[in-house]
Write a structure and sequence with these properties.
By secondary structure, this protein is mainly alpha-helical. α6 packs across α8 and α7 crosses α8. A hairpin with a 6-residue loop joins β1 and β2. It folds into 2 domains: about 80 residues, 434 Repressor (Amino-terminal Domain), CATH 1.10.260.40; about 90 residues, Arc Repressor Mutant, subunit A (Orthogonal Bundle), CATH 1.10.10.10. The chain contains 9 helices and 2 strands.
């Protein structure tokens, strides 16, 4: 159970007030992310945001979240999107543990379009998410061979786009 909103209201803080305080810690924080945190759809992804919630709500994370729901990404790498750690937590290692996008979207409570965006953002954040284009779904690489296959697939896709660009440029120059 998530008690962030309940605690904020007990302290007489408006959501916008808490947002302003959290932005001092993480300027990327927005009202949508805070709403998702308060409604239990997303969890704070960084230790800094968790610590800020504890400080501003004057409660421990154990008081704010059930032990099973707390998920913090270590501060060793920058987190561009709060959901990257959450996406990673739904993916298994190895092709045998692939999860379809529809299943991921359902588990995370988001639309298919939003799920595509979350996967893209997680990849931009450095999470290597593999997809074999065979209907098996998404997974985290477990072997060097899985990494090689994904690299080859990405290179092939990039080259295909570059070949298409040649024809578009020719039409523009004509």
């Amino acid at each position: 159970m998530n008690r962030v909103r309940e605690r904020r209201e007990e302290l007489g803080l408006k959501q916008r007030d808490l947002l302003d305080l959290l932005r001092q810690t993480d300027p990327r924080m927005d009202i949508g992310t805070l709403s998702r945190i308060e409604n239990g759809y997303v969890l704070p992804a960084s230790e800094d945001v968790l610590a800020a919630l504890e400080r501003h709500l004057q409660a421990s994370r154990d008081d704010l979240f059930d032990a099973m729901t707390v998920f913090a990404v270590p501060n060793k790498r920058p987190v561009k999107e709060a959901n990257t750690g959450l996406v990673a937590s739904f993916l298994g290692y190895g092709k045998q543990n692939a999860v379809g996008r529809a299943e991921l979207a359902s588990a995370m409570g988001v639309s298919d379009r939003k799920m595509r965006k979350l996967i893209e953002e997680a990849r931009e954040d450095g999470l290597v998410i593999c997809h074999d284009q065979d209907g098996g779904g998404y997974y985290l690489a477990d072997t060097r061979e899985e990494l090689r296959r994904q690299l080859k697939r990405n290179n092939s896709r990039a080259m295909s786009i570059l070949r298409q660009q040649k024809y578009i440029r020719a039409r523009l120059d004509a």
